[in-house]
């Protein structure tokens, strides 16, 4: 479906709210990550009697599990399905058998091995042994985690700002298109969605309509952006993209439009790349990428 932009919003004039540029680092989480090294690199000893926090290797009885499978119980923090069995293992001795529930099934387990993890002190020597380039001290590791957290926060901010600027660009622009053609595209999208296998998520008719209209306007805005900035699109790349798009739609069970419409869709996709690059440059100037 062909559409046009009668007035394109000046994306460079869109202000970005200050709160979207703020970086918040969870210092408490970083300290917990450092403290967690104490258990990650813990020394292990074999024990005779199980205490809370131990790792217990058990053998299931043949009646419950014909293959006599080995069961590993974490008595410190178990999954819900193994919680009762893990609690039942506490206080049991090496070689002792006990009956319990495991994943909703009655089972008799025999203790084969009890492993206790002995936490170590988090020292500069431990940090240096981790082999992180340039990180040899606890303070250095703290700075390393802080830098990673800052990078991750900036990335999330960048994604949010990208969505915000695209929304503002589309909402601030004016478009002209065939209403009946748009309605037909929406109905086709609804039919394609209804024919898709259930994958655990659901969209309402309103959400499908909003998505179709948004994607069309986004593509048209990108085309107009390229036109106004004198950006030429590689038509060979457009034809290649159209072919790939048609194949993908066919594989997904969607209705494949005619060649002309596929080319229009592919051209819009190709025009999005320069627009996204421009937005990324804006974001980089604001929050450093």
How far from one another are the termini?
35 Å
Query: Order of helices and strands, N to C?
Result: EHEEEHEEHHEHHHH
Structural class: alpha+beta
Task: Using the CA coordinates, give the radius of gyration.
Answer: 29 Å
User: Major sheet, described briefly?
Assistant: 5 strands, antiparallel
Q: Please tell me the CATH architecture of the largest domain by its name.
A: Orthogonal Bundle
Number of strands: 7
Q: Quote the CATH topology of the largest domain.
A: Trigger factor, domain 2
Helix content: 40-55%
Count the helices. How many? 8
Residue-averaged pLDDT, rounded? 91
Q: What is the secondary structure topology, with strand pairs?
A:
Layout: E1 3-7, H1 27-40, E2 43-46, E3 55-60, E4 70-74, H2 83-89, E5 97-102, E6 105-118, H3 124-129, H4 138-171, E7 174-177, H5 179-195, H6 205-228, H7 235-251, H8 259-287
Antiparallel strand pairs: 1-7, 2-6, 3-4, 3-6, 5-6
Helix pairs in contact: 1-4, 4-8, 5-6, 6-8, 7-8
Report on this model:
With 289 residues, the protein is of the alpha+beta class. The protein folds into two domains: 157 residues, Orthogonal Bundle (Trigger factor, domain 2); 76 residues, Chitinase A, domain 3. The chain has eight helices and seven strands. Strands 2, 3, 4, 5 and 6 form a five-stranded antiparallel sheet that branches. The protein has a two-stranded antiparallel ribbon with strand order 1-7. A hairpin with a 2-residue loop joins strand 5 and strand 6. It is elongated, with a radius of gyration of 29 Å. The model has no long low-confidence stretch (mean pLDDT 91).
């Amino acid at each position: 479906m062909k559409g046009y932009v009668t007035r394109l919003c000046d994306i460079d004039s869109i202000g970005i709210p200050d709160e979207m540029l703020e970086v918040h680092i969870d210092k408490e989480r970083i300290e917990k990550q450092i403290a967690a090294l104490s258990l990650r690199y813990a020394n292990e000893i074999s024990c005779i009697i199980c205490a809370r926090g131990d790792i217990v290797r058990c053998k299931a009885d043949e009646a419950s599990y014909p293959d006599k499978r080995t069961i590993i119980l974490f008595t410190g923090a178990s999954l819900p399905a193994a919680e009762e069995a893990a609690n039942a293992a506490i206080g049991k001795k090496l070689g002792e058998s006990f009956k319990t529930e495991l994943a909703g099934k009655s089972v008799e387990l025999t203790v084969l091995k009890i492993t206790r993890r002995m936490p170590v002190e988090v020292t500069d020597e431990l940090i240096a042994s981790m082999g992180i380039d340039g990180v040899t001290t606890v303070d250095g590791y703290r700075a390393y985690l802080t830098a990673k957290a800052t990078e991750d926060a900036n990335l999330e901010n960048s994604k949010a700002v990208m969505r915000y600027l695209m929304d503002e660009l589309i909402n601030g622009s004016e478009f002209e298109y065939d209403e009946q053609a748009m309605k037909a595209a929406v109905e086709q999208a609804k039919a394609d969605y209804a024919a898709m296998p259930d994958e655990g998520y659901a969209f309402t008719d309103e959400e499908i309509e909003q998505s179709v209209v948004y994607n069309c306007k986004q593509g048209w805005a990108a085309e107009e952006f390229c036109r106004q900035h004198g950006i030429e699109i590689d038509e060979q790349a457009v034809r290649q993209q159209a072919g790939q798009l048609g194949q993908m739609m066919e594989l997904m069970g969607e209705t494949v439009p005619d060649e002309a419409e596929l080319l229009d869709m592919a051209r819009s996709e190709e025009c999005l790349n320069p627009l996204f690059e421009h937005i990324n440059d804006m974001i980089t100037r604001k929050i450093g990428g």
